[in-house]
Structure formats: structure tokens, C-alpha cells
Amino acid sequence: MNSNLIAIALAAAVVGAAAPAFARDDLQQAAPQVVSLKDGSTLYIFKDGKMARENKFGEPWLFKKNEVLETADGRKLTPVGNEVARLDGLLKNGHRN
Questions:
Q1: Where in the chain does DSSP place strands (E)?
Q2: Which residue in 6, 31, 57, 75 is deepest, having the highest Cβ count within 10 Å?
Q3: Phi, psi of 36, rounded to the nearest 5 degrees
Q4: Per-residue pLDDT tens for 15-59?
């Protein structure tokens, strides 16, 4: 009986650990281009060319009007779109109870 409980607990832990990996896989498929920014945030460029930004704490972050982003290697980019809700859904995918 005790070994069955251990097996169930172990299986639950494995499934729980795999969920974040699936969430990031969905994000990689939706946004194949990822650019590191100078401020430590990450820019995701979706297949349709629209963009979203994740701050260094892992939260979706709005672009300011007429904002110019600087990449980690010094290039300047002007964001297209402001796909905060889209990024938020992809980041939370697999994390809901």
C-alpha cells in the first residue's frame, strides 16, 4: 500500500515538472524568433510578424508609444504590434489548475 502511494506521488511530480516544458514549447512554435534585449527582457516575434515582450521577471510587458528597443548586441528595433494578451496566454498555458 505504501509503495503505491509513493508511485502515485512520483508520477504526479513528473507530470507537474513536464507542464512548464510544454508551455515553453507552445511559445517556441508560435514565436520562432526570440531576441534578447539590453535591459534583460526578451522580445518574441510571432510568425505573423507581430511582437511581444517578456520582462526579466517573466511577465508580459507593454510597449510604450514610439518606443525603440535595443538588442543585447546594440541593434535598434521598432516593435510591431503589442501582443501582450497573446504572450500572456502562451506563458500561462500548462500552468492552470
A1: 33-36, 42-45, 51-54, 60-61, 69-70, 76-77
A2: 31
A3: -80, 135
A4: 554 444 444 578 888 889 999 999 999 999 999 999 999 999 999
Q: What are phi and psi of 39, to 5 degrees?
A: -80, 5
Give residue limits of the domains in the chain.
Answer: 25-95
75-80 contacts, C-beta under 8 A, 24 or more apart: 77/35, 77/43, 79/43, 79/51, 79/53, 80/49, 80/50, 80/51
Class of domain 25-95 (CATH, top level): mainly beta
Three-state secondary-structure class, residue 61: strand
Residue 91's nearest CA partner among 15, 17, 24, 2 is 24
State whether residue 37 is helix, strand or coil. Answer: strand
Cα(28)–Cα(26) distance, integer angstroms = 5
